[in-house]
Amino acid sequence: MRLSQFHLATVKEVPADAEIASHKLMLRAGMIRKLAAGLYTWSPLGLRVLRKVEAVVREEMDRAGAVELLMPTIQPRELWEESGRWAKFGPQLLKIRDRKEQEFCYAPTAEEVITDYARNELKSYKQLPVNFYQIQTKFRDEIRPRFGVMRAREFLMKDAYSFHLTQESLAETYQAMYDAYARIFARLGLEFRAVQADTGAIGGNASHEFQVLADSGEDALVFSDGSDYAANIEKAEALAPAAARPAPAQELKRVDTPRVRTVEDVAAHFGVPASAVLKTLLVQGKDGLVALCLRGDHEINEVKVGKLPEVGGEPVLATEEQILAVTGTRPGFIGPVGLPAEVPVIVDRSAAVLADFVCGGNADDTHYTGANWERDGRVTRVEDIRNVVEGDPSPDGKGTLRMARGIEVGHVFQLGAKYAEALGATVQDEAGKQRVMLMGCYGVGISRIVAAAIEQRHDEAGIVWPEPMAPWRVAVCVINPKGDAAVAAAAESLYAELSARGVETVLDDRGLRPGAMFADIELIGIPHRVVVSERGLAAGTLEYRKRDEAEARAITRDELFALLD
Ligand code: ATP
Ligand code: MG
Ligand code: MG
Ligand code: MG
């Protein structure tokens, strides 16, 4: 590729909503452009990288015996009614009507569609096991799309679904997918860990997430320093004994506060800054700790309800029924009115220092003072409240626990009979009996991987691609191509030779000044840079610099070819 014919569009300034390195760099490098919240155009440059990731994923899926197909992104409501997920999936499901008023959704995932396909296609145990996959756009109406393509609304996912007669067969394919994922992320040059994940309502121990390690990651991970034990925090929490729960640091004092309704009222009543008024209530629900996050004031009808630590981020509108389902009590005036008298903890996630907070109570016209939370002598923020903390013994008895942050790039899951049962997907077994198939599902966030890789590999100057993801392996930079025919010819010949050798090369023939040209090539993360200049030509050398090395050095053409072989 000649850059003069390409559309490279690097920019200096990025919008303030680009918070993390990968988002900023993808915008600066001109890999993506925002269309609307969570919707991005992949530029020609960005697409080259996305396709690289896609190709590695496809190769490893094929190698593992999965077979590719392609399903629609628009899925009929009826199928989702069959699985029971039309109502249950929640606001992430984008619902659509056609001109006949028929209802559809835009696929956030494809268990229903593949199970429908399987019940029509698969008749006999002889066709099993089979593992179908697709690489297809998904849409999830994320409550808080952010970090560019990292948490987008529309994104590219590889999703695979396997079908089996027996649990042993499912376990075998699950392992094959696990191994394929490990190969994918190793090939892409990413530092990752596979961690046990919670299987929620489906049960069992058969779910792992593949996490790219990065401090900016949204997920908390727990590892043992003395064994292979690794889990995401949800799974680790689920395993942890309840006794490990932190206890309030001091007694809450209950205070009558008639007609004190809003945060401002509370602050004025107690003579404290509004930041000392707690907006997040943690309550003991019937499934463990639950957070009810008030939106700015003490209107309880807008809360986020969920099991810790899934809560967090922006509050959502929850119905009284949802609150009831999670907490086991009905919400009321301020905070969880009607909860057992001992509201255990209340913490303000926005406050820098936690001490002596005022919080909502469990009856009208009541507040508590002195709220905070402490464990092992440390006051923690709500984000950090865990059953499991660094230094705890590992649940397998080997070593102590360490924590890290991760970005979920892949997820494998043994679904069992759930969808096949609901949709009546059966095959005939050896004895001629109809049997419900067992299923596994396996997702890879192809577009998220691009951002995750940058998060892990960048420096001041820009992106540092692992070679398999780079838009090109080599950039040949030409100093003054229009003014110096000999230099231009040497660069052309080098470009031709590299291309002939199968080395993906980009020729920077734009005629930019060296500083600007090098800055672009570094920003977009090309692993190898070669400069063709008048001086080098006279000396019979090229100036070579590896992206992750500090210094450039003079090498010959043959040395360059050897280095790239
Ligand atoms: P998350 O916990 O980050 O919301 P998830 O568990 O909801 O992800 P899965 O249903 O497991 O996601 O989907 C498979 C993969 O799709 C994830 O491992 C992730 O890499 C990717 N993915 C999920 N949601 C998004 C998104 N909003 N933007 C980009 N990639 C996503
Ligand atoms: Mg999600
Ligand atoms: Mg997840
Ligand atoms: Mg997941």
Description:
This protein is of the alpha+beta class. It has 3 domains: 216 residues, BirA Bifunctional Protein, domain 2 (2-Layer Sandwich), CATH 3.30.930.10; 131 residues, YbaK protein, CATH 3.90.960.10; 93 residues, Rossmann fold, CATH 3.40.50. The chain has 15 helices and 32 strands. Strands 3, 7, 8, 9, 10, 11, 12, 22 and 25 form a 9-stranded mixed β-sheet that branches. The protein has a 5-stranded mixed β-sheet with strand order 29-28-30-31-32, with helices on both faces. A hairpin with a 2-residue loop joins strand 20 and strand 21. Helix 2 packs antiparallel against helix 6. It binds adenosine-5'-triphosphate and magnesium ion (MG) (3 copies). The site of adenosine-5'-triphosphate has 15 residues, from strand 8, strand 22, strand 25 and helix 11. One magnesium ion binds next to strand 22. GO terms for molecular function: aminoacyl-tRNA deacylase activity; ATP binding; proline-tRNA ligase activity. It catalyses: tRNA(Pro) + L-proline + ATP = L-prolyl-tRNA(Pro) + AMP + diphosphate.
